[in-house]
Each structure stands twice: as structure tokens, then as C-alpha cells.
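In response to the reviewer comment on reproducibility (Comment 2.3), we provide here a single inverse folding case reported in full, input and output, so that an independent group could reproduce the run without further information from us. The C-alpha cells appear first.
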């Protein structure tokens, strides 16, 4: 019984790996830093080699589906954290001053505060 489930799990893992290795083509859009680049290493399965990716905003790339899915999840979380940090910073700047008006947002601006 254990051998049957082990071979079934191995087949499922193999099919998942094959699906993640399918190549997809798309344009990399880096909305947080237009014209910027992202570099990272990726390895999901034991049999896979470590691959290095350097992606530049606006370029067309052919990458494995597994890498594309991870990029969607990781960069989405990263952008949410960065936006939260920006909001906390703006809120702290507003509370230190006597004025709580909207003019503070107009003076500093969303893009003006964070030039990375």
C-alpha cells in the first residue's frame, strides 16, 4: 500500500515539475521602479539546477511557468509591504507637524518621498 502511494506521489511530483518547466513568454513590467531591474536565483525542485534571472523593465522574456508564478506572488507581496511602509512614513510625517491638512500630501507627493 505504501509503495503504491509513493509511486503515485512521484508521478504527481513529476507532472507538477513538467508543468512548472513549460516556457512562457511575456513582458516584465516593474511598476514600482520604472526602467529598473530585478535579479534573483531560483530552484524549486531537487532535480533542478539553480538558475539566475536578471529581468529589466519593459523587456520580453521567455521563462519557466514556475518562475512566472513565483514572480507574481513574491513581487505582489513586496509591493504591498513597500506601499504600507510609505503610508506609515507619510502618516508619521503628518503627525509630527501641527497641520493635518491635505496640503502635506501635495507638497511631498507620492513619488517625491521615495526615490530609491
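Designed residues, in position order:
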Amino acid at each position: 500500500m505504501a509503495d503504491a502511494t509513493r509511486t503515485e506521489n512521484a508521478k504527481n511530483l513529476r507532472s507538477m515539475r513538467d508543468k512548472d518547466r513549460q516556457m512562457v513568454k511575456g513582458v516584465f513590467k516593474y511598476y514600482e521602479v520604472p526602467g529598473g531591474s530585478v535579479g534573483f536565483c531560483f530552484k524549486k525542485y531537487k532535480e533542478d539546477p539553480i538558475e539566475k534571472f536578471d529581468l529589466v523593465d519593459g523587456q520580453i522574456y521567455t521563462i519557466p511557468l514556475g518562475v512566472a508564478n513565483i514572480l507574481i506572488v513574491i513581487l505582489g507581496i513586496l509591493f504591498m509591504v513597500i506601499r504600507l511602509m510609505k503610508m506609515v512614513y507619510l502618516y508619521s510625517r503628518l503627525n509630527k507637524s501641527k497641520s493635518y491638512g491635505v496640503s502635506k500630501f501635495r507638497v511631498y507627493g507620492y513619488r517625491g518621498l521615495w526615490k530609491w
